[in-house]
Amino acid sequence: MAMLLNSVRSSPVSPARALQYAARSLSTTTQLHAQAQAKSKKSLGRPGVKNIVLVEGVRTPFLLSGTAYADLMPHDLARAALQGLLHKTSLPKDAVDYIIYGTVIQEVKTSNVAREAALGAGFSDKIPAHTVTMACISSNQAMTSAVGLIAAGQCDAVVAGGVEFMSDVPIRHSRKMRKTMLSLNKAKTLGQRLSLIGSIRMAHLAPELPAVAEFSTAETMGHSADRLAAAFGVSRLEQDEFALRSHTLAKKAQDEGLLEDVVSFKVPGRDIVSKDNGIRPSSMEQMSKLKPAFVKPHGTVTAANSSFLTDGASAVLIMSEEKALAMGYKPKAYLRDFVYVSQDPKDQLLLGPGEGRLNMNDIDVFEFHEAFAGQIMANLKAMDSDWFAQTYMGRKAKVGTPPMDKFNLWGGSLSLGHPFGATGCRLVTTVAHRLKKEGGQFGLVAACAAGGQGHGMLVEAYPQ
Prior knowledge:
This protein is of the alpha+beta class and 464 residues long. Helix content is 36%, strand content 16%. It is built from 16 helices and twelve strands. The protein is globular, with a radius of gyration of 23 Å.
C-alpha cells in the first residue's frame, strides 16, 4: 500500500486530475447521475441530444494463438468479422460512412488493417477507414471514435472493431543490423558494400522479439499484476477461484448458446471454426500445481489465472438511432456515457477499472475485462476500500463492489480469450445481449490497458 501511495504522489497524472477526466464523460451530467442514484429506471436520453445505438456486434471465435488461425494474417480475421457483420445485418456495402479498427501489435504489411480488411470484405472503396491503437482498449477507442463522429454529425453509420493476431508477430533485426542493411541499400560501389558486409558481427544477428511490456518501465503486465495482487492482499487461492469461475461460466454460456456474437469462420485449408477454444474448466487441485509465471518462486500469477495469447477479431455496427430505424433495424442498445482515465503505469498499471468512477447505482450488468484474476480481484478490493476512495479518488467513502451475481456471468477474458485489439467490442456486445436476456436496463463496461489507462462505458438496453 505504501508503494502505491508513494507512486501516486509522484505520478504525472494525479488522482485529482484523474477524477476531472472521469467527470468529463461525454454526455454525463449531474442530473443524469441523480437519475441513476434514484433508481428511476428512466432512460438516460436527453432532449436535443442525438441517440447513438449499437445495431449489431459479432466476432470470430477467439482461439489460442498457434492453433487453427496460425497460417493466416490479421486482416484475414478482421475481414471475417466484417463479413460476419454484413451477413448478420444484410447491410448494403456502401451504406457505411466510416470504418475504424483497433489493433496493438501491427503487421507491417497491413499497417492500416482497417482499410485492408474493409476492402477484402467487399465494402465500397469510397468508405474511409483508419486504425487506432490504445493497447487492450483499442477497439473501445474505435467504438468511441465512432460515437464521436456520429455525435458531431459527420457520420450516421460507422463500423468499429478490432483484431489481434499473436500467432505471427513482427520480429526485427537488431538496430545495428537494420542500420547496416539500410546503408547497404544506399551503397553505390562494390567497395562500400563489401566494407559494410565486413562490419557485420554475430551479435548483430540477434533478433528483437516483441514483448508485452511497458516501454517506460520495461516491466511485463504479469509482473505488474503480481505486485498489484500483493499490494491488495489478493491470495493465489482467490485468483485461482476467480479464474475457475470464469471458465465454468464461459463453458455454461457456450453450451447454452448464449455467445451469439460468435460467427463461424471457414479457415482456408482447414475446417470451419465455430467456437472459442480456450474455455477449459479445470479444478482447483490442478490449478494449484502450476508454478508462478512471472515473479518466481513466490508470485501468485500463473498461466491458469491469466488471460492467454489469443487470435481473434470483432466488429460492431454503430448508428444514429434515426438512421438505424430508417433502415429498418431494431437496435440492441444505446451507447450512452464513456470515459477514459489514466494513472502511473509503474504501480497502477492495471487499476483502470477501479478508477473509472462511473456511478454503479442502477447497473444491472457488469462486464469487466479480465486481464488477470489478480487484477480483477485487486480492482474489486480497491472499489470496496474507503482508504482507496479517500486517497486516490477524492471521495469520502468507497464506491462499493459490483454484486457477483451480475458480474461477468458469461465468462470473461480469462476463459474466452483476449485478442488485445478486439476485446472491447466483445465486452459491449456482451452487455447488450445480457441486458436483453436478463431484462436489465443499464450495463457497465470497464477495462484496463497498458500504459496505466482505463476505459468505462455505460450502455442502456434498447426498449423491446
